């Protein structure tokens, strides 16, 4: 049975969540802060992409509706592995919808109607920003020698750039009706 004595853990408080890790508390805290923002961004972008999937309209409805469904699934699939990286580092991960609202960098959109071209352009910009934020987190992971989080991010950067590419091409020259 593993002993928690050496870490001075108190299993009745937040101290019980201190998963042992050799990267050091300063490094893991800095990485966790970046990753938690990415998890919040992913939840926010998931909801926005689903919203546009549900409220798509126009002549390319089927194509765009299906593309956004596929993209939302891909974004959602990043949340659990990223959140669990933070726990593996011994830090606390995302807690609540309130925290998503506080730390997410994805711009909220609760407009009654968004035309198809604007939906594609907005998601393209959001995904482009997400890739840049992932690269920034990757640099910090590299600097702190957290190869596991860096490796996870490498695939997610590729997926995010693929989403940006598809959105960019679909939105190219589209008028407000989606033609
Ligand atoms: Fe659906």
Structural description of this entry:
The chain is an all-alpha fold. The protein has a single domain (23-171), classed as Ferritin (Up-down Bundle), CATH 1.20.1260.10. The protein is built from five helices and no strands. The protein has helices spanning 25-54, 61-88, 97-103, 116-143, 147-171. Helix 1 runs antiparallel to helix 4 and helix 2 runs antiparallel to helix 5 (147-171). The longest helix has 30 residues, at 25-54.
Number of strands: 0
Give me the secondary-structure category.
Answer: mainly alpha
User: Measured on Cα atoms, how large is the radius of gyration?
Assistant: 19 Å
Overall geometry comes to elongated
What fraction, in percent, of the residue positions are helical?
55-70%
Beta-strand percentage range: under 5%
Number of discrete domains: 1
Q: How far is it from the N-terminal to the C-terminal residue, by CA? A: 65 Å
Please state the second-level CATH architecture: Up-down Bundle
Assign the CATH class: Mainly Alpha
Low-confidence stretches: 1-6
- Fold-level CATH name: Ferritin
Biggest sheet: strands, sense, closure? none
Number of helices: 5
Average of the residue pLDDT scores: 92
Task: Give the tags.
179 residues; mainly alpha; Ferritin; 5 helices; 66% helix; 0% strand; elongated; disordered N terminus; binds fe (ii) ion
Summarize the structure.
Helix 1 crosses helix 3.
